[in-house]
Amino acid sequence: MNDDPVAxxxxxxxxxxxxxxxxxxxxTQVFINLADNGRLDYSxxxxxxxxxxxxxxxxxxxxxxxxxxxxxxxxxxxxxxxxTPYVKKGWPKLDYTITATIVGSADAAPTKKVQ
Length: 115
Hints:
Layout: E1 14-17, E2 30-32, E3 49-52, H1 57-62, H2 76-82, H3 84-90, E4 100-102, E5 112-114
Antiparallel strand pairs: 1-2, 1-3, 4-5
């Protein structure tokens, strides 16, 4: 996917596409900033937040399993090829999204569900 301009800072609770150091390298992998990460705003092409966890939603985020740490998680290419069975075999406690809903104001486009 093409890079978006960074219009807001990577503050705690913002949702951002992961990417490599190469331009236009985003795919479908996203992350939630667990702390203010302003350095991501200006690292290379910058990481552009596109959403935010609202209200008490960060309480839920903080309950996600973190026992695997930041080292040696699932290989993104294998995840794309093999899907859920690959992840469940190697990382059975890993949390993942089953559904997501895009919401907006009453005059916005109709709500879409992503699964």
